[in-house]
Write a structure and sequence with these properties.
heterodimer, A: about 110 residues, mainly beta, 7-stranded mixed beta sheet, 4-stranded antiparallel beta sheet, 11 strands, about 50% strand, globular, B: about 110 residues, 6-stranded mixed beta sheet, about 0% helix
């Protein structure tokens, strides 16, 4: 089984900050990684796939990088709408998810 | 555009049963493995079950083995999760997925 580890679990930041979230896979998953944003009471929203391909309509302040076992989600300038929980997910071998990162207001 | 619409959730007593359904569209359904994923209140996302394209391979998380059954109908572009002997810890929003989540989920509450 492929395990996904996200860090940090909580991130406190201010509007305008650049923030980064890291996701590590227990084995090489190439670029088979997705990122989701989830707000309370809502379903997760797919932000990007193939580690760095943004879904249509996702603001360009979001970016993804990495391959193999280490990946990063970056938000270049945090906006009020970005306070949420973020999850990574591998889809090389079935599906497994990271534990989530809660981005909260500092 | 991928569309996944889950249904069938509700309130059920411990030991009871529910059948969840997922209607899929926007992709060639019978070429994809399909998954059920759940999220307990305040918790993260957990894979529950998966089925291959033809329905001959099925895998389950240990906590639901022997109680849940996944099956699909490729003629109707749908996948289902039969849940028996439900427990309080099965309380969650259940999502179906291809390689990605895509629906709004359906809430299952197991409580007396």
């Amino acid at each position: 089984d492929i395990q996904m580890t996200q860090s940090p679990s909580t991130l406190s930041a201010s509007i305008g900050d650049r923030v980064t979230i890291t996701c590590r896979a227990s084995q090489n998953i190439s670029s088979w990684l997705a990122w989701y944003q989830q707000k309370p009471g809502k379903a997760p929203k797919l932000l990007m796939s193939k580690a760095s391909t943004l879904e249509s309509g996702v603001p360009s302040r979001f970016s993804g990088s990495g391959s193999g076992t280490e990946f990063t989600l970056a938000i270049s300038s945090l906006q009020p709408d970005d306070f949420a929980t973020y999850y990574c997910q591998q889809y090389l071998n079935f599906l497994t998810f990271g534990g989530g990162t809660n981005v909260e207001i500092k | 555009e991928v569309q996944l619409v889950e249904s069938g959730g509700g309130l059920v007593q411990p030991g009871g049963s529910l059948r969840l359904s997922c209607a899929a569209s926007g992709f060639i359904f019978d070429t994809y493995w399909m998954y059920w994923v759940r999220q307990a209140p305040g918790k993260g996302l957990e894979w529950v079950a998966t089925i291959n394209q033809g329905g001959s391979e099925k895998l389950y998380v240990d906590s639901v083995k022997g109680r849940f059954a996944i099956f699909r109908d490729n003629g109707k572009n749908s996948v289902h999760l039969q849940m028996d002997s439900l427990r309080a810890e099965d309380t969650a929003v259940y999502y179906c997925a291809t390689w990605r989540l895509g629906g709004q989920g359906t809430m299952v509450t197991v409580s007396s």
